Structures are given as C-alpha cells and as structure tokens.
Amino acid sequence: DEFITGARLLNAIGRAGRAGKESEGWIVLARNAAYDRNDFRRLTPTEADMPVISALTTASALEELARLETAARDAADIALIRAGPLVESFIGHIWLLASIAEESGDEPRSAIDGFLESCLAWQQLADPDKMRWRRVSRQSLEAYARRPPNVRRRWSRTGVSLPSTAVLDDVATDIARSWPVVAGTTTQAALDQLLTDGRLERLLSLPEAQLPVLRSARSGRYTTIEINALGLLTRWVGGDSVGDLASTFLAEVRDAEFRQELLGDFISAAFDNFLPWALGIIIDWSNQLLTTDRAGIGLIPVNLPAHIRYGVSSDLAVQLIRAGVPSRAVASQVASSYQAAGNDADLSLREWLCTSSLGEWAQRYAASPQDLRALLEFTRLRGARLAARVLNAEEVVVPIADYNEPPNLARSVELRELTEEVEPARLGFFSGDVQVGVVRPEHLAELGAIRATGAPIHVELDANTDPPSARISLAAIDT
C-alpha cells in the first residue's frame, strides 16, 4: 500500500532540517522495492500535482461560515461564536490586523479591506462568497470597536480563537478578584489557589488543549475515563513518575503499557504544551489587574508555568532540567538537597555540586549515566575554556581532588580513566600504577574533551600549591 505520494513526500522533506540554521541537507529515502527510474520522475511533480487552494474556499470553511451567519442573525456576539476553527481563525486575524492598524494610527477598515483584496481567497472565491466573508470581517471589526482599547488589543495577540481568549480573560479576572492577601509559598499551594473552583477544567476543555481521549482499552469496546485533573497536576509537579501516576489515575486500564502511553500523551498535551502557555497568559493578565485594582497584594509567581512544563516544584529543579538533566526525580532531589544544606547564600548550586564526587552523585540521587553526564556539563566551569586553551598550545592549571602522594612520586603524571567505574568514569592522575588524585567535577567535561581529541598532552604535578595542582599542556611531538 502507498501511504504518501510524490508531492506529499516533497512537502514532508521540505519540513525536515533546521530552518535558519542550515542552507542545505541530505534526505535518505529507502523504498522496499526494486530500483525504478520512474521513482525519480514522481519526485518532480507538475503544478497540477501541487495545487495551492485557500482554506477560505473549501467546503468546510463555507459550512462554518453558514453556521456563523445563522448565529449572528440571532444577535450573538460574533467574536464569541463557536462556528469552527477556520472561521474563528479568520475573525481572530481580522482583530489582529485591526490592532496593528490602531497602534500605527491607520484606519482599521481600510487595512482590512486591503488585506481581503490581496489574499489568495479573493482570487479563487465567487463574488457572492466574497461578499459573505467581507460582511463577517466588518461585523468582526464592529465587535472589536465595542471592547475597551486595552481589552481588544490584549485579546488580539493571544494567537488562539476569540471565544477561547474570552475564557482566558474570565479566568484571569476571577483569579485577580480572589487571589489571597497572603498566598501560599509552595508551588502546590499556588496552583491550588489558581486552578480550583473548576478553573483547570475550564481551561482543559478549550479546543486548543487538544487532549487525547482517555479510554479503558486501546481498541475494541472501551469506556471513556474522567480523571481528577488538579490532583494529577499536583502530583506531576510533586515529582511522581508517569508509571505511578498512570497506576493511580488510570487504574481502569488493564494494559500497563497502554496505560502509561495514554497518560504520557495526556501529560504531553496538557502539561507540557497547553497549560504552561495558557497559564502564562492568565498570570500576566491577573498580575496586571492586581497591580491596578488591588495594589499591595502580592503578585502571582510568574515561574509556575515552567514548573508545570517540567514537572518539578522549584526553580532550581527547572534550572537543572533546562541544563539537560533528563530525570525529573534527580533534578528535584538535587535541588531539595541543596536547599536543605542551606547553601543559598554561600555557594551557588553549581559550586555546591562540585563539593561532591561523581560517585556521591550516583549514590545520593540514584542518577543514571545520562543524568551524571548532564550534571557534569552543568558543573563545568564556564569561561575556563580549558580544552580550547590547551589545544591552542597554552598551559592550564587545575586543582587535584583526593590528593594522595605516593613515595618516589614523579613530577610527570598520566591522566586516564578510572577503569573500574561505570560510564561516565572519572579521570584520575596516575604516577605509574599509583593513583595520585582525581579530576574535580567542574573540570571533568573539559579534560575529557581534550582526551577525546587524541591530542598528546603533558601533565605535570605541582605539589607545592594548596591544594596540589596539575599543569596540563600539549606534549612536544618528535619529528
């Protein structure tokens, strides 16, 4: 069976790569068939194979337009009518154009007429349908003008439909009115105060959330499942694993693999994508209202959307995950240990991590090799540029950890991996077969990068410094 045609395949190829980063790239296609020169001809489609049609001319768009016209005749506010995604997007774009024209001092109606006459739909629509879309644009502009200037400009910039924007505004207003004088100090407490009284359910019911249907079985007969969304969110931010959450909130699903897959899709749609965006807008609008209407009330923390996206309850854990730590549990444990140690004012998180060894990280936080590599990169001393300096024929000096001076110590020592350790293994300084010390965590990534180049290096011990140090430079090459 053929699932993708030549024209569609070209479209998919055009979306690959990194826009703005690369000017060209390679696409490798593997076809389960004998070589055929016709395959190449199919990848050179004609114009007839790739028609460009305006979405406003399609049957579905015109059906949505008819629903909108019917509702508008009943004196409904055209900006709040749920007629369908195409027509709602059209009205939202009219509002955006009106807002841009208003801010620049132009006349909105002229700007919108000019847009309509220059768009692709106007080259493809019949005259009666053009008049219908023009009528909707003018009704949309009237609805825009009826709103206060600050409201209409704010609504025009959310990037979602106006009916959904109205819900966001209602929730923001409700939160600003009820936000307590003394708010909770933890992430969980703040989310409870923000999203109780059905607010979370209102947000997740918006079409932009695009949530998967939670069902009891992958196929065949199944029932839909309703979950406690706020309870799930609280435990997600608290650091519970997807497996534990699936067992608790989707216990009706007998297939354990499907259960985790289903909840993973839900978390990705709700907590990783939609809710951080929606809540970011709501917090911004609520704080504006608090500033103007309830001066003196503490503002809502603006970092809550990041906590939801990454499933952690502290800014430090967010910092670690953004730095590449893959495990939410490890990031949360490291952040909690740092805060419990009371090092906020004395040592930064990076500096505090460097006071422990790689083995201690693995033991304390049950960190995987991937977590350890990410922590090593996080602790790497920024600006030191050890690898670049050594490869540029400079000498660098690094302190030695766990120094142990053996008898008959040679000044020239060797830098190599501790072979008895699992990856990522530490680097040790060796005098013959005797381990003199190890590389500190903040230098491990850089010195490992030097060794990975294969460049010959010379390491010389300096026991007179405090602590003892190693001088590292490129080794002379006999010619």
Give a quick precis of the structure.
The protein has 479 residues and is α+β, with helices and mostly antiparallel strands. The protein has helices at 6-14, 38-42, 59-73, 85-104, 108-118, 121-124, 127-146, 149-155, 162-178, 187-195, 199-204, 229-237, 242-249, 256-293, 304-310, 315-322, 328-340, 349-353, 358-365, 369-379, 386-391, 441-453, and strands at residues 396-401, 412-417, 427-431, 434-439, 457-462, 469-474.
Amount of helix: 40-55%
Rg from alpha-carbon coordinates: 30 Å
Number of helices: 22
Q: Estimate the global geometry from the Cα principal axes.
A: globular
Order of helices and strands: HHHHHHHHHHHHHHHHHHHHHEEEEHEE
Straight-line distance between termini: 63 Å
Number of β-strand runs: 6
Average pLDDT rating: 88
Strand order of the largest sheet: 1-4-3-2-5-6
Largest sheet: 6 strands, antiparallel, barrel
Query: Which ranges are low-confidence, i.e. pLDDT below 50, for 5 or more consecutive residues?
Result: none
- Classify the secondary structure makeup into a structural class: alpha+beta
Strand content: 5-15%
